[in-house]
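seq as requested:
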Amino acid sequence: MADPTLELEGSAAIPRSNGEPVFSAPWQGRAFGMAMALHEQGAFEWKRFRLRLIAEIAEADAAAGSPDAIEDDDGALYYSRWLAALSGVLAEADLVVAAELAGREEDFRTGVRREVY
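struct tokens:
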């Protein structure tokens, strides 16, 4: 199977080093892996995810007031948009319930659930 991440260009392109995806925190690699695995299992079409990711990045750039804002960090902004795009396509496909997902995100944000490395 061809690598669909090669279709991501510009601000939607995955941060890479020597052609390999780069992650500055474990959650970023897990977010990447979840999207790839779910796509490979047929949960969503890559084109739908790509378009959603591009829209999420454009929205984040507009909110930050800079078209380069998404590229100015260690990948956290990029992968937070990646997760938003993934959540969106999964909700559209009725594979997750948006309210449940929001509750789980809040649990991690408040410390009710802790990320284990």
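Helices lie at 26-40, 46-64, 76-92, 98-110.
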